[in-house]
């Protein structure tokens, strides 16, 4: 202890001197520990781990590993400068994360952790082969690595030179740890030193054995004559008939060397023989005589027995035996006897019939007593002697070492029971060095009591602290020796708090949470307590104590769409930890469980009912109410089903209301409601009934302004208030007869509310063009989807690497839907996510429909994206099939003084990450939506896995057909299957631009399964189908690209991919239809086509083949026109551009798009005519390989200007209201796909 304090003072003194040498008194600072780099130690060597601490002065430096303070055994030591020294490093005990803690006198501290990895050097077992062998024999050397980390390399050397396999020597690598060297037939040139060398990252070791091939000696048989007695002479010769020289020949008697007192003469006759002669035999000459011949090959012996007859006597000396039973020292008996006879047999009998034979081992105290020793040689009467045996015992411990565990603050009691001869002295040591007694530590008390077999010692430490943990030694000694016993003290503290609490699976009624803890050892943590509550509720508890302790659990019986707070507490033998950091999570919603409340209906006219309601009870909503389905039917009807219409909004602000129009006059209706959220619809409400008013005569007067129905009508939620009947509005009529409106509604606007809803608003037609009382409005809308020809064309995303799947959906059209309303606004719900919609509005009177507005394009939001559209009267779309990015168009050279609408859109939407955000340019206001709908991406469209080498597989896939947003990454899952057993699971995250991955380093003949999911910023989507493959040495030709339909504009270029694998490399061939194609093919196998014409359309097939297999993919190439008329001719509609900017834009369009293939004119004909109308029909002609988006009907009144009407794309007839002679013509708007489609 004093030496350690002196060392610490010396170290601090050196630190102070260093500070003074740097310029005066050292600058004081808080403790700080620099980064501890990863350290790699070699097992069996000494590790020095420094703590790079800064700051002055540093009072104390401590180390810990896995929460346990070091040192905790005799191999570890912390030096005075804070360096941790570990001798004889062991991988299982010493590898891990070490934490260094530095403190100053003020209690400030710093901590830093570093990882220590331990690599085990190879260890070779001894060779088992004979070092010397004979010519012609087989020899083998087995080199075995008994321990050591892989990877290992094993090589053989002969006389220091590398040894390779040959016809005479073979080397076999049995497995990574065993190598065998085999020699079929030994010859003299096989003599030498053979070495096995094993290497790994830790060390290189070798073991050498010398191999000698020699001929061993052969001794000719010899013997002594019979009937020899005392006084006679005898001789015999030992001759070696075969064996390598030099030879050494010697003699033994009874296994020992010949004594000079025996009078035996030995002489060499020649190098191969030796003569043994005795001139006068005596009884002492009786025995076994052995001739020993040896050379470099072997040592051989031949023994002959010599027996001399005569009288003999036996004398046995008495000996007092005393033994000391020291540890690890075996006592032995000293016998002194003169035995002149040929053989001696003796037995020793102790008291109580105990017996001992030969040298007794490990003598115990119970062996003390008197022993009778008898000897007999068969010639004379046997003799005996009594021997007394005493055993003295050194101290020893009968009980094994043990671990004492106490809680922090309790009294630790360490005991040891010592056996052995008294007096016994006991001393307690800390760490094997520092003696513990009350004088050195006031918290320590020592006690020692005598027992029948020794003493019992006890050490007590009051107020145990964590620093008291460690190794304590009970050392006992007496006059015969000493021994010590290890007692390990572990002071337990309350466990640390769990951390990294997170939710891994969220349901509507349950949540699976998981956490981490530095230790799940039962000695430190006995159980975990999960606590959770609602926002302002009380804590509920769940205890987890199964073995092994779980680090996750599922909390059930929760409420849907409710926010819960979780925390976890660890409990161990020493008490509870502090709670973990609280974690809040909200359960998933469910369908509403309660109906809307206070449902009522009242009439406002002869054809209209006003329905009002209140939202469901909060605890039954199970999520955010997104809207309501309002159902109605005639009460007298036998039908049980209702006609439903949807209304957006939650109805919180005073409830909701809906004006039902177009009802039967003076008819009773039954009305029901149900709330819906993102999961689905709830139960129906109690029905409410109301009857429409009687019909009243309409007053027709000239001069009133043409108005519109109530603005607040369909789908809008507002505070409940009294409603008035819709006023009768009158317009100027020609000849006082009702007619249809002659102009479309004005100031049409649309804005995306969510990913599945759009709000469209407008103003009535001008008063002078209403031509009657407006009955309401019709809103026509249709999505522009991916099928250019509905039902026939499904684009392959692989053919469009520059288009997202969402953009592919904007390349065509679907069926037109119509919504009637009496309001000036309508909310379209249940739309496709992230899709472009065309909307048109017309007003209608009792006489029929009026003129529809020009198509206004508006896109639903990306799923979960708050990027809203800018709405104008004359729209120009920048995304969809056109393929321009905002960044590209922002650099267009617009005329001086003009404003770039693209720059405007970038300013309006700075938070939108997608450069293709749905933006419509113009001069209208920005309308933002508070609603948002979230949906995960669909599964990848397809997936393949092929063998790319003997130890690797190549996986490729297509993007999801319904990404419902921008894909941010792909998740590749791997599963290894052995029969029915699943051996391993793995997950790999890949960037969104990657649609293939090569998995390397795989095992052959093992089945690997793969599947892929896509992730957006909302989360991970559905899984693709599971594909499997087994790596083999044979790599057949396989194509990992995907075929499909490719649409390219006229005069553009196309590159058809055909990426393939195979060993040997496959042969590739392209076919157009059934004919071989000789065209430009890139090194990667891509077919390059340029200047496409309509004749280039058709089927293209890529075939690959090698010796192990073949494969193919096919493409269907469609060549069409390039740019839509909106893009080609729409520049003139942008009034605020300069002439220079407009001209440049046209040139830019022509350069990018080329010349489109226009559709042919339709065939127009008149089917009927009256005095006031003409019914027209037409047939469409050639479409130009692109879908028709609409028709333009041009007509001219006599002596009037040319007028134009936009008609829907699926229209085939139109009734034109006229009163004068007309000139008619019709043309087609062909919506040609852009270069991206």
UniProtKB/TrEMBL annotation:
Regions crossing the membrane: none
Superkingdom of the organism of origin: Eukaryota
Domain Fibronectin type-III: 497-590, 595-695, 744-863, 939-1035, 1158-1237
SMART domains: FN3, IG, IGc2
Entry keyword Disulfide bond: yes
Region (Disordered): 1-26, 576-601
Cross-referenced InterPro entries: FN3_dom, FN3_sf, Ig-like_dom, Ig-like_dom_sf, Ig-like_fold, Ig_I-set, Ig_sub, Ig_sub2
Keywords: Disulfide bond, Repeat
CDD domains according to UniProt: FN3, IgI_5_Dscam
Ig-like domain ranges (all copies): 31-117, 122-212, 217-307, 395-492, 1036-1114
Name under which the protein is recorded: Down syndrome cell adhesion molecule-like protein Dscam2
Organism of this sequence: Dryococelus australis
């Amino acid at each position: 202890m004093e030496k350690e304090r002196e060392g610490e003072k010396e170290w601090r003194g050196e630190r102070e001197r260093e500070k003074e040498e740097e310029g005066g008194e050292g600058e004081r600072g808080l403790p700080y520990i620099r980064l501890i780099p990863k350290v790699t130690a070699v097992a069996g060597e000494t590790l020095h781990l420094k703590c790079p601490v800064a700051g002055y002065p540093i009072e104390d430096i401590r180390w810990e590993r896995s929460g346990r303070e070091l040192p905790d055994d005799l191999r570890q030591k912390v030096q005075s400068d804070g360096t941790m020294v570990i001798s004889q490093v062991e991988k299982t005990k010493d590898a891990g994360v070490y934490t260094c803690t530095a403190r100053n006198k003020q209690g400030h501290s710093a901590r830093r952790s570093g990882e220590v990895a331990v690599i085990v050097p190879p260890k070779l077992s001894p060779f088992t082969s004979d070092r010397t062998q004979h010519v012609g024999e087989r020899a083998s050397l087995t080199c075995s690595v008994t321990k050591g980390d892989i990877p290992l390399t094993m090589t053989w050397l002969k006389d220091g030179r590398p040894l390779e396999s040959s016809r005479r020597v073979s080397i076999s690598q049995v497995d990574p740890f065993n190598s065998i060297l085999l020699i079929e037939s030994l010859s003299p040139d096989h003599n030498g030193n053979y070495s096995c060398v094993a290497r790994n990252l830790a060390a290189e070791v070798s073991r050498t054995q010398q191999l000698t091939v020699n001929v061993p000696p052969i001794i000719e048989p010899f013997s002594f004559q019979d009937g020899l007695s005392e006084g006679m002479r005898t001789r015999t010769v030992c001759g070696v008939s075969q064996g390598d020289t030099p030879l050494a020949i010697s003699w033994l008697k009874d296994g020992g060397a010949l004594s000079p007192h025996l009078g035996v003469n030995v002489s060499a006759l020649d190098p191969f023989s030796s003569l043994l002669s005795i001139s006068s035999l005596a009884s002492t000459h009786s025995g076994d005589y052995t001739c020993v011949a040896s050379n470099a090959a072997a040592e051989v012996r031949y023994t002959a027995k010599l027996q001399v007859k005569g009288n003999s006597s036996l004398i046995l000396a008495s000996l007092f035996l005393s033994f000391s039973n020291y540890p690890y020292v075996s006592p032995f008996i000293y016998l002194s006897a003169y035995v002149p006879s040929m053989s001696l047999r003796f037995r020793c009998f102790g008291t109580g019939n105990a017996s001992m034979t030969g040298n007794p081992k490990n003598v115990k105290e119970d062996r003390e007593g008197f022993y009778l020793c008898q000897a007999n040689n068969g010639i004379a009467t046997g003799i005996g002697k009594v021997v007394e045996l005493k055993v003295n015992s050194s101290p020893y411990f009968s009980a094994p070492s043990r671990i004492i565990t106490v809680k922090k603050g309790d009294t630790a009691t360490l005991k040891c029971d010592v056996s052995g001869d008294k007096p016994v002295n006991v001393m307690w040591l800390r760490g094997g060095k520092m003696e513990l007694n009350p004088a050195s530590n006031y918290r320590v008390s020592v006690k020692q009591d005598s027992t029948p077999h020794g003493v019992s010692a006890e050490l007590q430490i009051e107020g145990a602290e964590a620093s008291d943990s460690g190794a304590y030694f009970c050392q006992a000694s007496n006059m015969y020796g000493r021994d010590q016993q290890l007692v390990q003290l572990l002071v337990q503290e309350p466990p640390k708090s769990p951390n990294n609490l997170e939710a891994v699976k969220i349901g509507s009624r349950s949540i699976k949470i998981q956490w981490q803890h530095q230790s799940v050892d039962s000695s430190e943590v006995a159980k975990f307590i999960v606590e959770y509550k609602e926002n302002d509720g009380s804590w509920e508890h769940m205890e987890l104590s199964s073995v092994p302790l779980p680090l996750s659990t599922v909390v059930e019986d929760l409420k849907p769409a409710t926010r819960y707070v979780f925390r976890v507490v660890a409990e161990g033998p020493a008490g509870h930890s502090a709670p973990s950091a609280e974690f809040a999570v909200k359960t998933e919603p469910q369908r509403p469980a309660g109906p809307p409340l206070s449902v009522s209906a009242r009439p406002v006219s002869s054809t209209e009912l006003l329905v009002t309601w209140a939202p469901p009870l909060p605890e039954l909503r199970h999520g955010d109410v997104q809207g309501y389905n309002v159902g109605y039917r005639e009460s007298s009807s036998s039908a049980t089903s209702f006609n439903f219409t949807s209304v957006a909004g939650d109805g919180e602000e005073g409830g909701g209301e809906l004006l039902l129009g177009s009802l039967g006059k003076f008819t009773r209706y039954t009305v029901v409601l149900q709330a819906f959220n993102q999961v689905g619809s709830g139960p129906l409400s109690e029905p409410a009934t109301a009857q429409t008013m009687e019909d009243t005569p309409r007053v027709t007067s000239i001069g009133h302004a043409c108005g519109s129905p109530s603005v607040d009508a369909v789908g809008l939620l507002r505070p409940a208030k009294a409603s008035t009947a819709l006023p009768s509005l009158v317009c100027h009529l020609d000849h006082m007869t009702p007619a249809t409106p002659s102009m479309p509604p004005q100031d049409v606007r649309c804005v995306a509310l969510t990913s599945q809803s759009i709000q469209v608003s407008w103003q009535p037609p001008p008063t002078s063009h209403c031509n009657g009382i407006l009955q309401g409005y019709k809103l026509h809308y249709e999505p522009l989807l991916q099928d250019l020809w509905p039902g026939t064309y499904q684009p392959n995303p692989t053919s469009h690497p520059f288009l997202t799947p969402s953009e592919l959906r904007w390349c065509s059209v679907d069926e037109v839907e119509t919504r009637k309303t009496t309001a000036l606004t309508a909310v379209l719900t249940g739309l496709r996510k992230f899709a472009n919609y065309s909307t048109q509005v017309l007003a209608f009177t009792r006489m029929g429909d009026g003129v529809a507005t020009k198509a206004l394009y508006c896109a639903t939001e990306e799923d979960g994206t708050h990027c809203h559209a800018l709405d104008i009267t004359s729209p120009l779309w920048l995304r969809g099939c056109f393929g321009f990015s905002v960044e590209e168009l922002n650099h267009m050279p617009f005329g001086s003084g003009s404003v770039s609408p693209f720059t405007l859109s970038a300013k309006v939407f700075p938070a939108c990450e997608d450069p293709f955000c749905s933006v419509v340019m113009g001069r209208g206001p920005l309308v933002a939506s508070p609603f948002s709908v979230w949906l995960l991406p669909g599964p990848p469209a397809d997936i393949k896995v092929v063998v790319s080498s003997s130890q690797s597989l190549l996986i490729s896939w297509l993007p999801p057909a319904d990404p419902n947003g921008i894909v941010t990454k792909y998740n590749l899952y791997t599963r290894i299957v052995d029969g029915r057993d699943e051996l391993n699971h793995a997950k790999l995250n890949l960037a969104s631009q990657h649609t293939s991955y090569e998995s390397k380093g795989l095992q052959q003949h093992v089945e690997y399964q793969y599947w892929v999911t896509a992730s957006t910023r909302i989360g991970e989507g559905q899984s693709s189908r599971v594909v499997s493959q087994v790596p083999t040495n044979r790599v057949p030709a396989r194509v990992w690209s995907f075929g499909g339909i490719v649409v390219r504009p006229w005069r553009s270029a196309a590159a058809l991919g055909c990426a393939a694998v195979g060993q040997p490399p496959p042969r590739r061939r392209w076919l157009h239809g059934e004919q071989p194609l000789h065209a430009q093919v890139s090194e990667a196998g891509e077919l390059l086509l340029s200047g496409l014409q309509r004749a280039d359309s058709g089927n293209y097939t890529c075939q690959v083949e090698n010796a192990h297999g073949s494969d193919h993919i096919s493409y269907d190439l469609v060549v069409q026109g390039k740019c839509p008329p909106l893009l080609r001719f729409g520049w003139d509609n942008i009034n605020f551009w300069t002439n220079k900017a407009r001209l440049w834009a046209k040139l830019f369009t022509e350069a990018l798009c080329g010349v489109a293939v226009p559709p042919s004119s339709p065939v127009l004909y008149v089917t009927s005519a009256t005095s006031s109308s003409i019914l027209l029909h037409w047939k469409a002609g050639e479409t130009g390989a692109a879908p028709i988006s609409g028709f333009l009907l041009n007509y001219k009144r006599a002596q009037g200007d040319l007028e134009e009407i936009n008609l829907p794309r699926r229209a085939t007839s139109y009734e034109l209201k006229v009163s004068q002679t007309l000139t008619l013509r019709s043309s087609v708007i062909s919506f040609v796909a852009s270069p991206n489609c």
